[in-house]
Specification:
This protein is α+β, with helices and mostly antiparallel strands and 107 residues long. It starts with a helix and ends with a helix. It has a four-stranded mixed β-sheet with strand order 2-1-3-4. It contains five helices and four strands. The longest helix is centred in the first third of the chain and has 12 residues, at 30-41.
C-alpha cells in the first residue's frame, strides 16, 4: 500500500483524525498540544491520532495529500479542517463542538 493510500485510509477510516507531532497524551510541539486541547474542549471524547514523528513517510507526504504545509492537521469526516489556529478559532466560535458532535454521532 502506498503512503498516499495509507493516509487516505486513516482519514476515511475514522470520523476524527489528528495528524500531530507526538500523541494526545504526550504532544511533542505546542501547536499539536493546543489542537488536542481544542478537540477535548469541543467535547471530543475520543479521536484517532497519527504521530507523524514516528512515520517519516506520512510526515513527508501528508502536506501533498492535504495541500496543507504544516502540522498538526485535523480531519473530520474525511475533510481537512486545518491546523492549530483554525482549530482553536473554531473552538472559540462554537463551530468545532458542533462538528465534533456530528462526527461522533455518525461514528
Amino acid at each position: 500500500m502506498s503512503v498516499m493510500d495509507r493516509i487516505k485510509a486513516e482519514v476515511e477510516g475514522h470520523p476524527i483524525v489528528l495528524f500531530m507531532k507526538g500523541t494526545p497524551q504526550f504532544p511533542m510541539c505546542g501547536f499539536s498540544s493546543r489542537a488536542v486541547q481544542a478537540l477535548k474542549g469541543a467535547g471530543a471524547t475520543s479521536f484517532h491520532s497519527v504521530n507523524v514523528l514516528e512515520d517519516p513517510e506520512v510526515r513527508a507526504n501528508l502536506p501533498r495529500y492535504s495541500d496543507w504545509p504544516t502540522f498538526p492537521q485535523l480531519f473530520i469526516n474525511g475533510e481537512l479542517i486545518g491546523g492549530c489556529d483554525i482549530t482553536v478559532d473554531l473552538l472559540q466560535s462554537g463551530e468545532l463542538a458542533r462538528m465534533v458532535a456530528e462526527a461522533q454521532k455518525a461514528a
